[in-house]
TrEMBL record:
CC cofactor note: Binds 2 [4Fe-4S] clusters. Binds 1 [4Fe-4S] cluster coordinated with 3 cysteines and an exchangeable S-adenosyl-L-methionine and 1 [4Fe-4S] cluster coordinated with 3 cysteines and the GTP-derived substrate.
Organism: Methanobacterium alkalithermotolerans
Iron-sulfur found in the keyword field: yes
PROSITE patterns cross-referenced by the UniProt entry: RADICAL_SAM
Binding-site residues for [4Fe-4S] cluster 2, renumbered to this chain: C250, C253, C267
Protein's UniProt name: Probable GTP 3',8-cyclase
Species classification: Archaea, Methanobacteriati, Methanobacteriota, Methanomada group, Methanobacteria
UniProt record similarity statement: Belongs to the radical SAM superfamily. MoaA family.
Length: 308
């Protein structure tokens, strides 16, 4: 049975950030490459959180970071979570280590993957990430599809005058390699709070959406994904991910997040209502106590936009 908050929004999925460390330095991210490993949750603690989530009705788990594949125990983490028989277990990654892990992760129970890749141009990749891992990321996407992950989605943050002219090249790359292209609209977030940066590089998606509507053989609206539209074009797929900071997102939000240091984040857009779950686990609280902590966090969850 699904757990609902007081606004009758079902809680379907849980995103667990298993590390704040990363091996790239994306210019729109506030993390500066490798981050301290202090206080990271163990594989067993992550499993425990997933177990509680399953027991209160959550159906999907997504592992993220930082860069989750930087953890040497990533296969063990996926394997443990997969024993809980969620409807879906997935990962968000930058793809640079995916070639090494793709088959092992599939064997461990991973179902699908989102790979963040903003460009196919080596110089642009170097500019965005301060690294030269483009070939590794491209091989990672191919390896993910070949290993049977389905779908493989490529997340492209679209930035004016940096990579916006590459959208259709990226679409062809994704179509050729069995991936779905997700175009992410740049917006002000916790990880990209720089208003000057946003103003300079924000790319308006409306014209592109009109073009996609005219070119698409079919358009599908995904109700449980904030009414996100999926465009089917020339035997390929494109989705546009609009900013979260709107009432439509709030009204349809079905997600919780766990921060890298083990806090429940009931609202993706707030940091003033975090709930400590890892402290309760480390102090030996019972499963019933842990479930109550989760449910209390959900019941006290409010839309960021009060008019939702």
């Amino acid at each position: 049975m699904l757990t609902h908050d007081s606004f009758q929004r079902p809680i379907i999925s849980l995103r667990i950030s298993i590390t704040s460390r990363c091996n790239v330095k994306c210019l729109y991210c506030h993390h500066d490459g490798i981050m301290p490993q202090d206080n990271e949750m163990t594989a067993h603690e992550i499993f425990k959180i997933a177990q509680v989530a399953r027991d209160i009705g959550i159906k999907k788990i997504r592992l993220s970071g930082g860069e989750p594949l930087i953890r040497k125990d990533i296969v063990e983490i996926v394997e443990k979570i997969s024993t809980l028989e969620f409807k879906d277990v997935s990962i968000t990654t930058n793809g640079t280590l995916m070639e090494r892990y793709a088959q092992k992760l599939v064997d461990a129970g991973l179902k699908r993957v989102n790979v963040s890749l903003d460009t196919l141009n080596p110089d642009t990749y170097q500019f965005i990430t301060s690294r030269n891992y483009l070939d590794s990321a491209k091989r990672g996407i191919k390896a993910a599809a070949q290993a049977g992950l389905d779908p493989v989605k490529v997340n492209m943050v679209v930035m004016k005058d940096i990579n916006h002219q590459e959208i259709w090249d990226m679409f062809q790359f994704c179509k050729k390699n069995g991936a779905v292209l997700q175009l992410i609209e740049l917006l002000k977030t916790e990880s990209c709070p720089d208003t000057e940066f946003i103003d300079k590089y924000h790319f308006e998606m409306n014209q592109l959406e009109n073009e996609l509507t005219n070119r698409a053989d079919k358009v599908k609206t995904r109700a449980f994904m904030q009414d996100r539209k999926k465009y089917f074009v020339d035997d390929g797929e494109i989705e546009i991910v609009k900013p979260m900071d709107n009432t439509e997102f709030c009204k349809n939000c079905t997600r919780l997040r766990i921060t890298p240091d083990g806090k429940i984040k009931p609202c993706l857009l707030r940091n003033d209502n975090l709930v400590d779950i890892i402290g309760a686990i480390r102090s030996g609280k019972s499963m019933e106590d842990l479930k109550k902590i989760f449910i209390d966090a959900i019941e006290n969850r409010e839309p960021f936009y009060g008019g939702c």
